[in-house]
Write a structure and sequence with these properties.
The protein is of the alpha/beta class. The chain has one domain: 3-Layer(aba) Sandwich (Rossmann fold). Helices cover 35% and strands 25% of the residues. It is built from seven helices and seven strands. A seven-stranded mixed beta sheet has the order 3-2-1-4-5-7-6. The longest helix is centred in the N-terminal third of the chain and has 17 residues. It is globular, with a radius of gyration of 15 Å.
Length: 191
């Protein structure tokens, strides 16, 4: 369990980074542990490599480890330099990349069983989301899953974008006791 001191430190760090660059960080506070648990529900150690986009302070990362994903199987792609440096210290056997999610197809990654995204899709342009999904599904296994949360009322990926990539989305869960409340969506290739 995470201590109150660590949680306060992470929240303070998140607020500082949000103040510096609100469109990159996109939320004033990190996601709740309840949301993190819903994001990793169904993921397991047998999935092989798992890629996390926008891990921030590591809220989802901790839950990925808790469900048995080995640290060495994690690829953490974080745009914020301070968060990336902190993640390298916290998770030395994970692969930590300080860069944009769109570039993941250029990283020569092994096939992944899942991509867990903490990216702020609601504040991103459609072409950026399109590029991220294209890159993600280049490295995902045929039956791999892209897990995305949103504060919106529907899937944050436009229907046209899903169709262009041959994907479908399903709402996996709703987390009322997150600030703000959030829905978790799974994106997969159509059968």
């Amino acid at each position: 369990m995470i201590s109150k001191a660590v949680k306060l430190q992470e929240t303070s760090s998140f607020i500082r980074e949000w103040l510096k660059s609100p469109l990159v960080t996109a939320s004033v506070v990190p996601s709740s542990r309840r949301l993190a648990r819903k994001m990793v529900r169904g993921l397991h150690s047998g999935m092989g490599q798992v890629i996390e986009l926008g891990p921030g302070t590591g809220v989802f990362t901790r839950e990925l480890l808790a469900v048995g994903i080995p640290e060495s199987a994690l690829v953490l792609i974080e745009l914020n330099g301070r968060f990336a440096a902190d993640l390298k210290q916290k998770y030395p056997t994970a692969t930590v990349v300080n860069g944009a999610a769109e570039a993941m197809s250029h990283l020569q990654l092994k096939r992944a069983g899942a991509v867990v995204s903490g990216l702020p899709f609601l504040s991103m342009k459609d072409r950026q989301i399109d590029a991220i999904l294209g890159a993600a599904f280049q490295v995902l296994d045929q039956d791999g899953v892209f897990v995305q949360f949103t504060y919106g009322h529907r899937c944050p990926v436009r229907r046209e974008t899903l169709e262009r990539h041959g994907l479908f989305s399903s709402r996996d869960s709703f987390v009322l006791n997150n600030f703000p409340p959030a829905s978790v969506y799974h994106l997969k290739r159509k059968p």
